[in-house]
Every structure is written in C-alpha cells, then in structure tokens.
Amino acid sequence: VGTDGRTVKRVFTWLAKKSPGDPDYEQDLDPRPPSVVVCFFPFDAYAVGPFRCVNIILTMDKELYWRDERPKLITHGEGFIGVTPANETTFYVAPGYELTFDMSAKQDTGYGPVRIFVSQGVIPKGATFDYTVTGDPANRTFKWTPEEGQQCEYLICFIGNNTRIFEVDIDKTAVFDAGASLDQRCYSIIVMDQTLDFAGGTYVNAPGIPELLTADCGMSIGLWFLPEGTMSMPLVTIGYTLEGSTQKEMLHQLSWEPLTDAVFKDAVTSQDLGQYYRLVFQSGNSLVTVLTEATFCVDEWHFAMLTLAPNGDVKLYLDGNETIHYAEDTRDFHNIAVEEGKLPVTDGKVEIIGTVLGSKPGSTGFFYLGSYLNPFDGKITDVRIYSRALSSVEVGEKMFQVLDAEKEIGLQAYYKFNEGSQKGNSLGNIVSPWSYNKYGKKRNSTETTVQGDTTGNGLVDSPLGPYETEMNAKGVTIKDYSGNNNNAVASPPSVDGDLHFEWMAAPTMPTCPKEFSPDNVHVDGGQYITVSGTGFARSQFLKCSFSMMGFDKIVKAEYVNNNTIICQAPMAPYLTASMLEITNGCCYSDMKIPVYMLERAMSIPATGGAITVPGVCSGLSTYSVGGWVYPQATERGDVFTLTAAGVGNIKVTYFESYFIVSQFPHEGEYQALKFSGDAPAQGMGEGAGWHYVMLSVDGSKVTLYLDGTELEVPTPDINFASATDCHFVVGAENNGMVGLIEEVTLWGKPMSLCDSYQLMWGNLTQASICPTGEKIGTFLNWNDNLITYLKMNDFGMDDVVLDSSDRFGETGTNGVISGDAVFQFTTVPFISPSFNRPRPRVGPPTEQFEYGPPTLEAGNVWMENYTLPRAFDDYYDYVIFEGEFEAEIAGHSQSGVRNAGGTTMLTVDGMHNMTVLGFGFAESQWLKCEFNGELVDVVYEGIDEVKCHIPEVPVPGYYPLGVVNFEPFSEDCDAEYRGAPADRLGTHVPHIEMKEATIEFDGVDDYAFSGEVAQKIGEDWSGVTFGAWFYPLDDSPDKEQPIMCFTTACAAAPSPPTPAQIV
Fold it and tell me: What is the spatial distance between Cα 809 and Cα 794, in angstroms, rounded to a whole number?
C-alpha cells in the first residue's frame, strides 16, 4: 500500500473464494483451513529480517459454549454441562506425575463439527492433545507427564470454532445471531517440586533403611534442608529398639545447632556478633562428635552430607565440598564447611547401625527425618541414602543433581516428597488421579476469602493458590525413587505438630524466569533488575549470570520470595546486550533474558527541555564548558548557555549542520561570534551523529573545540566576573537543540586542545592523567576548578541531574530538569561496542515444546527465543554479492549470518556492504570497521548493525574483522597525557575466511552466457584470446566436455543458445 522512507507497508487479504473470479457467496465450502499460522518476514534483496507470525482461526458467527458447570448452561438443554476447567484455572504438577483435563465445546445450532485449537502458547514437549469425541459436541483431552528439567510455568489458551470444513447444506439467506463472541480459555500449568514442611514434633520414618547400612561399605546420607527454628534441631536420627522393649536407643544423629558468636573481655561479653548455626554429627555409643564452624544462617536452603567409611573415617559436609568463587574478579564466594572425625573400629568393624542390628537379634531399627525428642522446624527435600561412603568429589558432583537411580551405585533410598495433594482438605478439589492440584480464580469481584472455583458452578472448590498447610502429610506413604521400594512413612495424625507437603523450589530445581524490569541498564552497573517467574530457591547458591564476550559476570541474587528475585547489574567493559541467566545452583535457566547495557544521555525533544544548574558561573572570567552532543534535527536550538541577570548570555547553539557561538548582552543586540565547521546531525550522511563541542574562554583568548579541531572565536563583550546570579543551562525550554547531550562539564579554567581530547574520550580521573602527581600537561591537578559535571546517569529521578564533580573534592550543585527533557539510554563513541547480541524469546525453553503454533504475545506477535550466537556464522550477514552473481537464500538466523548457501566465506575480491550485527555501535565520524588491522569505511544502520566495506585481499586465508567506535586521532595528545597511543575503542570477532570464487557446472545442462562479451567481440573482431583455470570433475575418457565456445547466432538457432554454442 505504499512506502514511507525506508518503511514498506503491505496489507494481507485472504478471500473466501474457490478461485479469484468467484464471488464469496456462491460457495458451500470455505477453501481455507480452519486454523493456520501465517508468517511474514522483511527482505531487502540483501538481508532477511525476523519472522512475525499470526494465527488465523475461522469461525462461524454462532454461539459456541465451553461445556463446564455454569448454571446458565442448564437452560440450553441437554449436553451443555461438562468438565472443562474454568477460565484462568492454575494447575500444579510435580515431575513424573500425570496432568489430565478435558476441553469440551458445544454449539446451539451451526454448520459442521466443532473444532478445538490451541490459540496461545504451545503444547509442551511430551504432552498430547487428542480428540476423544468429534462432531458436536467435541472433546479434546490434554495429557502430560512432565519430566525432570521441565519445571516452569506454561501458559496455554484454547479456543473452539465451528468452521465449515465439510460439504453441508447452507441456507444462504439465514441471518446469524448477533452478539457471538470468542470465549478463550487460558490456563497456567506450573511444574514444580514439593518439599516436606515440619513443625512441632513430626517426623518421617524409613524403617527398612538401617539394616542396609553396614560396616562392609559404610554409608552416606545427604539432604537439602531449610531450617526455620532458632533452637537446636535434629535432622536425621538413626537408632534401634531392642526386642521386647519400647525404649529407643539413638546411635547416629545429624543436627543443626545455634551458637552465639561473641567477643569476650575479662570473661564478660563485650560484643555480641549475632547468632549463627553449625552442623553437628554425634555417634551415641562411641561419644564421637564432629561439628562444623558456626557461620551459617537459618531461613535458607543448605545441603548436608554425612559419609562414614568402613575404616571409621567420618566426613561432614555443609553446602559443598570446596569453596567456589563466583568469579575471578570478585571476593564473593560460597560459604562451606568440611570437617573430619573418626569412629572406633572394633574387631575390624566400625560401629554403624546395620552392623549393630546384626549383633542384636530381634532388634528393630529406625531412621527418622525431622523431629526426635526435640522438634525440627523447617523443610526437607531430596534425601539420598547410600550404603557406601561417597568420595569428596562425588559429594560435590551429586549435590545439585536430581539423581538417576539406575546409574547410582549403592543408592538405597531417594525421597523427593512429591506426593502431596489437596485430597481430604476442607477446600480440596477431589480429582482423579490425585497427582496434581488445581486452583481457581476468585468466585466474584466481592470475594475476599482465599477461595476459588475451578468448575464454573459458582461454588468454592479450591484455594486461590498453594499455601503452607494446604496438603496434609501425616500418615502418608513417602515414595522411594531409588527403585528399591524402601518407602518411608510420615508420622501418624496422633503425633503433635504439623506435617505438610508444600510446593516449593529447592536448589536442585532449575529456575524459570518469566518477566523482568528494567531491560536497559547503565554500562557502569549498579542498577537492580527485578526478575519474576517460578522456581527461585532461597540459598547462597542463588545467582545471576551476565554474559560478556568470552566470559560471564556472576553476582549474588537477592531473594524476595519464591517468585521474585533481584539481580544487581555488574559493570560491563563495553556497550553490550548481555544474556542474564538465573541459577539455583544446579544449572542455569534455559530462559535467557536480554539486558541491554548502555550509556545514558539527556534527551531534549522538539517541545523543548533544559537542565539548569543555578549560580555556578557567578564570578567567572575564565571558564570552559563542553560535552558530547548528538543533534537529531537541523532546526536552530540552544546547546549550552551561561546567563546572568544584568549581564546577558553566551550560548553555543546548533543550526543546520553547524555549532554557533553567540552573545546577547543585557543592553545590546544578539551577535553570532563564530560558526563551526561541518557537524551533520543524525542520519545526515558522512560525519553525522555524535560530536564533542567545547567553548574555552581565557580573557581575550576564546576557542571553540569541535571533534578534535580548534577554532579561534572573537572575544565576547560579556564577562561574568562581577555576576552574582549566573546560571548554567543545558538545552532550553523553548528553543533547545533536538537531540542528546552527554558528559557535560563546566570548568573555572581554560582548556587546551589536548585537554578537550582527554575529556572527549573519558579520561576524567586524576589518577589516569597524573598517576604520580607530576606536572603533566597544563595543570598539576588536572581536575582543579571542576565546577559542574553532569554525567546524566541518575536513576529514579525525573527532575534532578546530580552533579558528580564532588567526587574530586569539590562541592557539587545539582541541575534541575524542566520542560520535556528526559533521560535516555544510548550508545556513545567513547565506549566500545561488542558482539554479545541475544535474540528475544517469549515462553519457556524451545526444547520443551514438541508441536503447536508459535508462542503468541498480545496482538498475536510471535517473538523468537533468546539465544546467543553459537558459532562464527552468527556474526555476519550477507545474501547477495554486488555485481552479476546472485545467490539464493538458503536459510536465515535471527542474529548474525543470513548468507549464501549457508557458508561464511567471502571472495578474495572483497565485498562492498557486508552487514555485521553486534551491539553498541555509535553513529559518528569515528565509527569504523577494522579489517586485517586497517580501518575501512562503514555505514551506520543502527546500534546493532553496520555495513563494512571489505577490500580485496592478495591471498586466500583468514582475516580479522572488527568494529570500532573510536580511532585515536592525536598522537601528540596521547604522548602528552598517557605516554602511549590510545587503544581503539572497538571490538573484534573471530576471523572471516576469504577464498577465490569459482563457478561449478553439473556437466548436463549448466552453462554461463555473456551477451555483452559476445557483442563486443562481434562489433570489433580482431581475434580473441581466452584463458581460464579449470578443474574437471568427470574423468570419462569418451565424454567431450566443452570449456569455452564462440559461435554466431543462426536464424534457426534456438534461444537461449544450445550447449554446443556456449561455455
């Protein structure tokens, strides 16, 4: 339907016709499929853009109903009541358990059978969605047994329609009922592990375990636990009862003990350092105690492992087997404890429960998890029991693993505590099988109690969501997942205290982030990113990982609740699109979040906006003011203004493609003092984009510095030496330059060309310029008289810009924002770009889905999944070479190469415009591509795309290609201030391969024909010489294989020429 600049607009129309000439109303069968996904992609004869897909579903304008238990459906007659879950029902299911529900629909009257489709989301991998009843009504059953690793939240919506898909008699005069609407049913399926929550004196007993733990091989007992009490609490207690006795004898116990750390002076506590906790192992008969240091906390997950070897060696592990640092450049590390002890060995046997039982005929063993004499208050999950002593390496390896019982040696029992359900609770929805729970939305807008309706009948049948005491565990059989059938039994109802299953993530479960904010952060780091989703476990192992080029920055995550965490963004060495991943400790999430790490600037729109720093220029006769400026329009607009009542103002203004220095005395007329050289605005061709401008006034010497050049300016008549109320203004409320302004400084001293050079490229710190305090350049302390420094990096402030000059020992004055000026993230020339570019994804990981339409967002827009480039292929993009040789598109990827034939090679002849995709490119005259150590021309396309001019190379081989935002232009200034040339502010990617190009023929009917060459030879025939390198691929001795042929066209000759006439 037309174009608008670089934008192409097209309208998609799909007529309901058998053929183009048919009117719509003459058909009895709609030829279009009832449900189809149509995808579109942009293509400019060079690069393929990302796919965008819409799901088109045909439906008749007749009332169609989901068959549930809404009372009003009874009035529609027989067959309208069914078991379809109410809209926005949430299902919880543990890995290994089946989730089943039916989607059933029926129409009043209509045409053709009813159909049921997935309208949003996709069917998870391993699930089925099959018709069990077809026609009208229709029923389709969803079945899924999720596996380990699929813990996540899945959002799936369903819709029914009654499209005419078979031949039927149609009354073409019928008027369809008005008011029909699409009733989309959407559900949340949360795959989550369970834990067992203990309170009071409750416990779990595994009576079959003790006899399996003998002195022959030893034993290992590991578990994850979250202590919530503050007293000494048992975790595991092992013992026996003698025949004919009810007295329990404890043999081994693993417990959690508090210890108040204090500083003593003269036997009196002088400083209370707080209460911390430790892990303690006691062996009853031998009175051996092994304990860790008390450096651990309650209310977070810990991993405990006890190993006892046949020789009596005891090892106690708490939270791992070795200290692991988060990253090499941080001091953050995991707090662990590993302690050793020794049990006595008598007659070659170590004292261990199985051996003791064998020596006491008729005795009965017990293996308690949780309370024993003293109560345990907290949660336990993922208990693993071995009949051998694990090595230290195995402890570390298996700590976060969900065990595969078939591969484990000596695993006698494995308890995951996933048996909980709402069965028997006052609000429990009795479902069959009882392997999952469902939660309804509130019954109505006035409902205030925690009650929900999952059937549509208006009655309470569920909580609104999981809660701690929802699933009673007393008396429940606890399944053993080792395959040995050593099931445990929860304490009976008669035991005091509470025991409940609870939906909760432990560190063995993968995280599944869903939403996050913000997605733009400052490259200097420090901003907090809130991530919501499922599966966040509170422990010291909960971490955020930010991908950089070639390494990861790992930081601690702040746990808020089971569905929310906070990550603090680290500093990045370059502008980048970092991939944020979350881990509980076991593994990083498949869901990857793109965090765009950028610089911030002040954006002034066409409606005007300003930053006013009051009083800072009063009394100045010598001063300098400057900053980075990115004009986005050519209309006249103020950039910097120094203004004082009764004195007048001095301005730096942008107009068309120039900066203008002007004055306007209090009693006088406006006067333009100097026009700069060419400084094109955004998108205005060569040299466009960012510019650095600085005005320096030193008595009669006035200089304008622009992009590393200097211009003399006539001396203004205005002097602020006697001004008492002089303000510094960036932009203007009514006539400000449209664009971005960044890194603004006001100095009470003049600046040289090299001074401005140092300011341009970010060398503001005294340490980098005067590392030993010697006189370098003009000033001993280069930051003397720094009056105002506006970095534009302020967060959470809409009306103030902080003055950063006080970090140099000066008292800063903050700027006040007025008009429509706002902070904006952007790229800048003085920070490097990077190749760390993710692609967006919506929904759980791709590998978890098997079939179904693409994931749809609001507006039916398909967003691709987040992934980083996995290979060199993902960095470059070229489909068609300039010239006569074209290559068809063999495929495409979302970030990086869309190339000819799936290769990543270029010809040795080079390429004019090779698209390079990365992140952080800044439009300016310094933006260049760097090929084989030399700077080459570049075309700026956006912050994530440039086009490089690749020159020809003398020989085939591998050549490095990079993109730089800045190439130093002043060797004199580098030598004066740093003693060595400045590094290019850029980044390199792996080498590209360049080879000679050939043309290949199939030996049957392939040929290449040049009418232009033939015409030239025919017009001026004086002989011809032809030469070529050729490589025969067919060695048949009796086959003539023409290499080249010249011929004249005959009247009877076919067109194009015959094979005998061509190469």
Answer: 20
For residue 776, the 8-state DSSP code is: B
Cross-strand partners of 697? 623, 702
Residues β-bridged to residue 414: 384
Phi and psi (nearest 5°) for 210? -55, -45
C-alpha 239: how far from its chain's center?
Answer: 49
Please give the mean pLDDT across all residues of the chain. 79
Phi and psi (nearest 5°) for 304? -115, 135
Torsion sign, CA atoms 254, 260, 261, 263? negative
Report which residue type is found at 584: N
Q: Does residue 865 have a pLDDT over 60?
A: no
Kindly report the backbone phi and psi dihedral angles of residue 648, in degrees, each rounded to the nearest multiple of 5, phi listed first. Answer: 120, -160
Residue 907's beta-bridge partner residues?
A: 995
**pLDDT of 897 higher than 70:** no
Helices and strands in the chain, H and E counts: 6, 66
CA distance 527 to 572: 12
CA angle 603, 607, 610 (to 5 degrees): 50
Determine the Cα–Cα distance for residues 603 and 631; give it in Å rounded to an integer. 10
Tokens of 6: 């670089």
Give the list of residues 6+ apart from residue 970 with CB closer than 8 angstroms, or none.
708, 753, 754, 757
Rounded Cα distance, 997 and 880, in Å: 14
How far, in Å, CA of 84 to CA of 105, rounded? 8
Nearest-5° Cα angle at 784, 825 to 722: 95
Quote the tokens at residue 748. 């009470």
Residue 5, sorted as left (phi over 0), alpha (psi -120 to 50) or beta, turns out to be left
Contact 919, 575 (CB under 8 A): yes
For the cut 80, the answer to whether the pLDDT of residue 152 exceeds it is yes
Q: Which residue has the higher pLDDT, 823 or 906?
A: 823
871's enclosing H/E stretch is none
CA distance 242 to 665: 106
Strand partners, 526: none
CA 8 to CA 53: how far, in whole Å? 17
Torsion sign over Cα 933, 935, 941, 947: negative
Residues present in the chain in total:
1063
